[in-house]
Here is the input.
Amino acid sequence: MKGRVLVVDDDAALAEMLGIVLRGEGFAPSHVADGEHALAAFRDTKPDIVLLDLMLPGMSGLDVCRAIRAESGIPIVMLTAKSDTIDIVLGLESGADDYVVKPFKPKELVARVRARLRRSENDVPENLSVGEIHIDVLGHQVVRGAEQIALTPLEFDLLVALARKPRQVFTREVLLEQVWGYRHAADTRLVNVHVQRLRAKVERDPEHPEVVLTVRGVGYKAGSP
Amino acid sequence: MHRLLLRTRHYLHRFGGWVVGRWRRSLQLRVVSSTLLGSGIVVLVLGLVVLDQIADGLLTSQRKAAVAETTAGVEYAQSQLSSLGGAEDRELQLTLLNIGRFLSDRGGSGGLYNVVIQPSTGELERVAPADVEIMIPADLRDMVARRLEQGYAYANEPAPDGQVVPSLIVGAPVSTGAGLFELYYVFPLRTEAETISLIQRTLLTTGLLLVVLLAGLAALVTRQVVTPVRLAARTAERLAAGLLQERMAVHGEDDLAKLATSFNDMAASLQRQIVRLEELSRLQRRFTSDVSHELRTPLTTVRMAADVLHAARADFAPEVARSAELLEDEVERFESLLNDLLEISRYDAGFAILDAEPTDVRALLRRVVDALQPVADRYDTDLVVRLPGEPVIAEVDPRRVERVLRNLIGNALEHGEGRPVEVTLALGTDAVSVTVRDHGIGLRRGEPAMVFDRFWRADPSRARRTGGTGLGLSISLEDARLHGGWLQAGGAPGGGAQFQLTLPLRTGQPLSESPLPLGPGDDGSVVSDVRPMPSAGGQRA
Here is the structure.
């Protein structure tokens, strides 16, 4: 798998080091050093995944994240030095799929990138439904009636994971493992923020969800099909 | 009956309590009550004195007139009777009657007084008005008849018009050849009695009015003082509650205005201090955050470089390869130290935030144990885990609790000397508790109190051999406190150590007791020292 990776980071040494590590793992990295040029570079290189530093000169990482998200659903992994919940949640809410806190292990980063690039190699046509939502898994289509709903691949994976087992309650840890590829992780912020984002797109009233239901103290489950 | 009595007593007691409470709390009530009491006493005494003086004056002049009248009557009677012969004179009775009529008529047609002539001896009849019954007080009779003195007394007697009124009775002996007679004048004191009762009523009314007026005045005056004081108290409460903009209104230039001004100055000064501290603390957090970012980015590069070198070390000369290994290890240590320092400084700056959510602590503990299983295998230690059959849902910050448990179990594995490490989870009514027990070198006396100190090590010589930053337990303690929970340590030399984390099931709920005892394990060793951890909810007794 030859993935194109766009690294957006103002620290030249780190960017170069990231390039070395990523090339060593068989990726094709490209680099842009500031936020203002990030979007142009994104359009030029058409990467498969973006590694985005949240603290950038020029345009802030959060704005870059939102701008990319507005154009594309491609995976964005943020690189952040701030591990406070508020910073993590802000990043996730502006559209990042996953995050890595500096200083990270190269293996950890590569694992995150691979997990985000790995798509289900399922060729069998599969149709799921939750409430009014119908999912064509193979075609990556989600519709409510005639209305097409645009989900990012991650949101799509999350919805499919829940919809495939309609009566099962998923703990956040199980979702982290199935959707994000984490093991032994307790980072519930990832799940919580993405469930919110998913709800904002698929629910009629996100305050009273019917598609993704909360099971207090345990996790989430899909609404009745 | 008994119950009723008890209940009455209960209500009385409660009422008494309420009154006492009001009395102690309200300055106004106290001032008004004492004014009421004081002015009441003064008015009462004054009224009594005035009434006494007036009554005395009124009666004295009346008495003098009465005595003069009586003296004249005595003289007349004496002159009339002296013309008669002895006691057996047949005319005597008639004369007495005449004297009585004459003297009565002298009082005027209106009948100002009644006259009674009482013969002291003989068989003569007493001369008195026929239509009314007049009783002469015995004391007066005794004085007049026995001691032959003029005297007077007050009594309720029928007046000439028949009504019973307070009267002045003046009596005098009339001593003649015909024997001894007692002459009594009964003066009704109707006017005087009416005057006195009028004065009484007037005094009572004015007195009461005065007292009420004074009490009202006192209430008004204290109100003027108390209202600003109460206002100040309320403002102070609002200030204390964090409304730093709160100020008192300043009117005029009196003492109360001075109070308000001083109060406002104090509030302004407080506000300045607090704003300054907040600013400092914000700067501190900013600094921590900046340091974090500035250090972490180059550290990431170093870390990745070290990793690349480490991965390629097989191709290097032995010294270079070993250097790459050392670099890798030390970069890792540096990283954990940096992380721990940043975490501690976050706690010190007061910016640690609890992200509590309902969490299954049992699943969380399982995950930690699974993750540490390779470490246990490396130490060749059995990790014995006792879990309840049900999920244990508690409102906790899962990342912090996971960090604490990883730290406690990691420490136990490290100091357990290969003997089994037992991890027990228990659920109480309002708390969840995890105990981590090892059977290693244990803790010496006094050490359980020191294990939470920063950079403390049980054995300084071991410091280099074992990992850890020396901040793990300090951070764990802060994590427990942030939850309003406890982290306690116990142990005995050679008997192993035990650490117990107790967290409330719901955020903000105070802890009363742990579902697990912090005691010796199965080997009967004694807990040498237990350190109760003060928590946000209060100190454990």
Summary: Helices of chain A lie at 12-24, 35-45, 61-71, 85-93, 106-117, 153-164, 172-180, 188-202. The first strand of chain A starts at residue 4 and ends at 8. Chain A touches chain B at residues 11, 13-14, 17-18, 20-21, 24, 55, 79, 81-82, 84-86, 102-107, 171, 173, 184, 186-189, 216-218 (CB under 8 Å). Residues 188-202 of chain A form the longest helix (15 residues).
